[in-house]
């Protein structure tokens, strides 16, 4: 051991860490098709005084692991060929694949909307509804760009080979020219249009200039992937990997975790046991361990509490999962924050629960803070910390008005935490797995707490995967289908 302190795998780019480690790999140049193997072969030929006309110079790929504020870990890749000068830059997600895909619909109305930053992965598809134009997934590499940059790149791609095309197929060339003119009108901000970014991996992002308030022009939705989409990402179930292999090993074939047999862990043992398993730090990606325990919240239900401490970057996180499934109704909890007593209320926020503070026009999606068991003050402090630690996204290109609005919002949160401003905190959870402590004794009504249960909409059930779920008589349809097929045959 050389005594060098450990550093996170994924680190922020800061002045205190001006030279993060970048990995260099000699690679094949896709432009001139030359790489280091040909270079070494050429040196051997020269050493033995053989005739050789060209010395092949290798290309170099540089990899940098870093984080994008308010987004996730990414791997930046930069390639340059010393022989032909070809350069290429792209981005790959460095974190885990999201459990849901993401679809972002943006109404582009002003030229300022064209400057919105866009993070897209290899699996992102882009659609412009008005022109019936689509960029399929895996047709372009992942990158950080803007909406204007996407339109500009599309125009340049369509105009390639136009010189030859005008000679051989003038009609097709004219159609492409007309379509490029339509794209230029959108790029110049002459016409409004609908921009749709969809990614089955969930690794996409479009800037919200109104953050942390909701963007009235943008709709973000999450969806469950189907079997084909999971296979595109390399995700397979245990049954799909192979049933025979699962019988050959106590650890289920290719699976790292042993599957629990029925009645192997009674619920009483789970409440008394703290389980520990290896994982990766959500902040820096370094190996660490997570402790998990089931507990019971009085007057509510059983929950699973998970805590992770990273020895490399010092990150400490806790997460709460419901231990009793999805409730029949969604729940909307409104709590008035009027003093220190309200700040001390216990709060269980599930990972499907969104937060709203209407007085300051703040709306936080369910994925921002995750599931956690804390207090009202803890929720507000976590919001402030997440915003403050991340800083302004794309600081070098953020205008002064946006910075002032961001600083003003942080100041407003500090006033709320200090008790200088009275607001209403709203928790909206379609699964019904969130809870806020009542301060009233006995059967008295807590006037500052309002709990409303509601029936979920079709879209909410679709996002939770409930519309296609059948828990009763699910075998009857299969039998009826088999009988119908046998009759046809």
Automatic annotation (TrEMBL):
Whether Zinc counts among this entry's keywords is yes
Give the family from UniProt: Belongs to the ZPR1 family.
Cross-referenced NCBIfam families: ZPR1_znf
What PANTHER family does the record tag this protein with? ZINC FINGER PROTEIN ZPR1
> What are the UniProt keywords, alphabetically?
Metal-binding, Zinc, Zinc-finger
Q: Which domain of life is it from?
A: Eukaryota
Q: Per its UniProt record, what InterPro entries does this chain match?
A: Znf_ZPR1, ZPR1, ZPR1_A/B_dom, ZPR1_jr_dom, ZPR1_Znf1/2
Q: Which GO terms describe its molecular function?
A: zinc ion binding
Q: Where is the Zinc finger ZPR1-type domain?
A: 56-208, 279-438
What is this protein's name?
Zinc finger ZPR1-type domain-containing protein
Q: Where is this region: Disordered?
A: 462-489
Entry keyword annotation includes Zinc-finger: yes
One GO cellular component term, please give it.
nucleus
Origin organism is Lutzomyia longipalpis
Gene3D superfamilies xref list: ZPR1, A/B domain, ZPR1, zinc finger domain
Note the Pfam families from the entry: jr-ZPR1, Zn_ribbon_ZPR1
């Amino acid at each position: 051991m050389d005594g060098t302190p450990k550093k996170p795998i994924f680190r922020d780019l800061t002045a205190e860490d001006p030279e993060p480690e970048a990995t260099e790999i000699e690679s094949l140049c896709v432009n001139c098709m030359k790489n280091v193997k040909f270079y070494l072969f050429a040196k051997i030929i020269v050493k033995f005084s053989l005739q050789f006309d060209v010395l092949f110079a290798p290309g170099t790929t540089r990899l940098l692991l870093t984080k994008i504020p308010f987004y996730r870990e990414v791997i930046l890749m930069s390639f340059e060929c010393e022989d032909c000068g070809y350069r290429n830059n792209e981005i790959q997600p460095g974190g885990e694949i999201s459990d849901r895909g993401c679809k972002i619909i943006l109404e582009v109305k002003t030229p300022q909307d064209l400057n919105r930053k866009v993070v897209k992965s290899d699996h992102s598809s882009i659609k412009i509804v008005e022109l019936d134009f689509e960029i399929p997934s895996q047709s372009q590499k992942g990158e950080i760009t803007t909406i204007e940059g996407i339109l500009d790149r599309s125009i340049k791609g369509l105009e390639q080979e136009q010189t030859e095309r005008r000679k051989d197929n003038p009609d097709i060339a004219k159609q492409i020219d007309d379509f490029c003119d339509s794209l230029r009108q959108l790029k110049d901000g002459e016409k409004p249009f609908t921009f749709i970014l969809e990614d089955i991996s969930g690794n996409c992002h479009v800037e919200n200039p109104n953050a942390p308030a909701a963007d009235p022009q943008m709709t973000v939705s999450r969806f469950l992937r189907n079997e084909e989409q999971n296979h595109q990402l390399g995700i397979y179930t245990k049954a799909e990997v192979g049933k025979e292999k699962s019988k050959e090993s106590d650890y289920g074939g290719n699976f790292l975790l042993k599957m629990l047999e029925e009645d192997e862990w009674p619920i009483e043992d789970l409440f008394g046991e703290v389980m520990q398993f290896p994982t990766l730090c959500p902040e820096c990606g370094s190996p660490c361990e997570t402790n998990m325990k089931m507990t019971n919240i009085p007057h509510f239900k059983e929950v699973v509490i998970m805590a992770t401490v990273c020895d490399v970057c010092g990150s400490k996180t806790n997460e709460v999962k419901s231990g009793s499934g999805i409730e029949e109704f969604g729940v909307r909890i409104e709590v008035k924050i009027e003093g220190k007593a309200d700040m001390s209320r216990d709060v269980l926020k599930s990972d499907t629960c969104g937060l709203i503070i209407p007085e300051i026009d703040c709306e936080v999606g369910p994925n921002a803070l995750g599931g956690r068991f804390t207090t009202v003050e803890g929720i507000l402090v976590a919001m402030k910390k997440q915003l403050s630690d991340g800083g302004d996204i794309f600081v070098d290109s953020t205008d002064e008005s946006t910075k002032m609005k961001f600083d003003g919002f942080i100041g407003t949160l500090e006033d709320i935490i200090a008790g200088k401003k009275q607001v209403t905190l709203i928790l909206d959870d379609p699964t019904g797995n969130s809870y806020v402590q009542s301060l009233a004794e006995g059967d008295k009504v807590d006037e500052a707490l309002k709990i409303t249960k509601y029936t979920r909409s079709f879209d909410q059930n679709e996002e939770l995967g409930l519309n296609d779920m059948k828990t009763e008589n699910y075998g009857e349809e299969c039998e009826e289908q088999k009988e119908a097929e046998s009759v046809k045959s």
